[in-house]
Amino acid sequence: AVVENFIMHYTNVDSIPNVVQYSQEATYELSGDYGKKMLILEYHLTPGAYEDSLASSENESRYENEYRGSVSRGFPHTFFNGKQTFIQGASSTATVKSRYKNILDSLILKKVKLFCEPDLTFANGVLTVGGKIARYGNESIGDLVVEMFILENKGDYLYYTVRQKLLSQTISQLSPKEVRDLEDREFVIPNGYNQNQLSVAILIKDNISKKILQAALAE
Question: Helix, strand or coil for residue 196?
């Protein structure tokens, strides 16, 4: 189950709006409960005249053009396995945790016959992301898109910060029992980044519905 949380932090961690803090605390607690069955991505956006140094135009575009749809803009805006299922706002950590859990419990019961194994290599300041995707079962699957995201763990409500999306790749068809190598993507690590704090999330989506079918994390 993939939780994509669009949030705002203003200028520093000490000034997180309460509603955003409740949402983050809920997802962090649930992550401990679900372990590897759950993957969190946090996208920082800048609200109005305020600033968030971790916000980016790419995050903004993803929210506005791919996820928000006709719903009013508001944070936290939390999506589960794609844009179809979401919760906006948070009244308390306990309340929103219960609401998230109800969704997650249903999602982890749904099995999609896809397997993803990511691969990371670091060399000369460059992170190379690759891996394999496989189809098991007796039916082919098509119209897939593979997304790769660089995450940075900066601690203290910044554990799953999305820093950059790498170039997506499409898979027109994957036959039963086929194993496909993903195309390598490179990320030149900027100055100030700590290599040990970086990880990569890989999302496999239906390119028509945009539903997330499978995901993997490489650290």
Answer: helix
